[in-house]
Amino acid sequence: MDAAKSAILIELAGPDAFAFRRMDAALFADRPHFRTEADGTYAGNRADLASVRYLLAWAPPPEIFAKLPALEVIFSLGAGVDHLLGAKNLPDLPIVRFVDPDLSARMREYVVWQVLHHHRQGVHYRRNQDANIWTDRFQPAARDVTVGVLGAGVLGLTAAAALVQLGFDVRVWSTSAKTINKVRSFAGREALPEFLAGTDIAVSLLPLTDDTTGLLDTHFIGQMRPDGPLGGPVLINAGRGGSQNEADIAAALRDGRLMGASLDVFQTEPLPADSPLWDCPNLVITPHAASVSDPRALVAGMLEQIAAYERGEPLPNLVDRRRGY
Ligand code: NDP
Ligand code: OXD
């Protein structure tokens, strides 16, 4: 390996910076690497930036690219690439998404956790407990509850499989049709009304693109099954905040058109302290923590992919810039 020619730069602007600043240099074995510090300086020899062939980043600042004349491949710190694709001066180089069993397992856990929370009337019992009230609520069977997963990609399919295991009636919505055991597939915008009409709990794991921006709004909520066994529709979003209309969701939670919701992602992150969402009834808020990229899994996968690439093998999990994910 020509070490001088194959360095990695880890650009830590963005929300995952905290975890990655604790990234152990030993994870990189003998691979030369540099990383940005909290103050924007680089840990490593600045002169060596010219030898960097690989960039690991979330939302790289526009000035970075001019400093990397040997850059060949950009690796995303996350599965979503909207931050990367929105970067100014982004060169026309291959972008590899983060796809990993660890990331999928974490998202599966989040989806199962939140679906079960609403299915087992968790928000109502919490409210009752706060008021010292002992009142039972109807507990439907999982098979009578339809969970509609929006986005049947790596994460959506992992979540759907776990929900099938739990006995839910599961359907997925994606751009292209899928064939999945025990899961009904709906494809394209024209199939969305039918998909939603039978959905009790909608789980969005969609990437943020022009097509998915603002999708989860009053119109979307109004198309969900109003009279299912949970007493009303539930919305869970762990895709991207830009896909949701927060004013619409807050209004629907307040007037009961939405029975409950769980939001992990927001239009503005961190969620501002004065956001009306904080005080919304029957809403579970988590701080973009559904599935955090684990530095060990991320670096190990990236090093394997770089080694394969340097042997002449194709890069996996490439982003299609035209589609935006
Ligand atoms: P994939 O690219 O594997 O899957 C995306 C899915 O969305 C595909 O099934 C795709 O359809 C579908 N899709 C895209 N656009 C549309 C559209 N306009 N209409 C219908 N379906 C559409 O992504 P992942 O599953 O790996 O990740 C999904 C998203 O999860 C990420 O983009 C990111 O935003 C979010 N995420 C959030 C995390 C968190 O902690 N909250 C952590 C990790 C990811 P098709 O299959 O036909 O192409
Ligand atoms: C991701 C995320 O896209 O953490 O991986 O949101």
What does it look like?
- The protein has 325 residues and is α/β, with parallel strands linked by helices.
- The protein is 27% helix and 17% strand.
- It contains nine helices and 13 strands.
- It has helices at 17-21, 82-85, 101-119, 122-130, 154-165, 192-197, 218-223, 246-255, 295-310, and strands at residues 7-11, 33-36, 42-43, 52-57, 73-76, 95-96, 146-150, 169-174, 183-187, 201-204, 234-237, 260-263, 283-285.
- The strands form two sheets. Strands 9-8-7-10-11-12-13 form a seven-stranded parallel sheet. A six-stranded mixed sheet has the order 3-2-1-4-5-6, with no helix packed on it.
- Helix 3 (101-119) crosses helix 5.
- The protein is elongated.
- The model is unreliable at 1-5 (pLDDT under 50).
- The chain binds NADPH dihydro-nicotinamide-adenine-dinucleotide phosphate (NDP) and oxalic acid (OXD).
- Residues 78-80, 107, 151-156, 173-176, 205-209, 211-212, 238-240, 264-265, 288, 290-291, 325 line the site of NADPH dihydro-nicotinamide-adenine-dinucleotide phosphate.
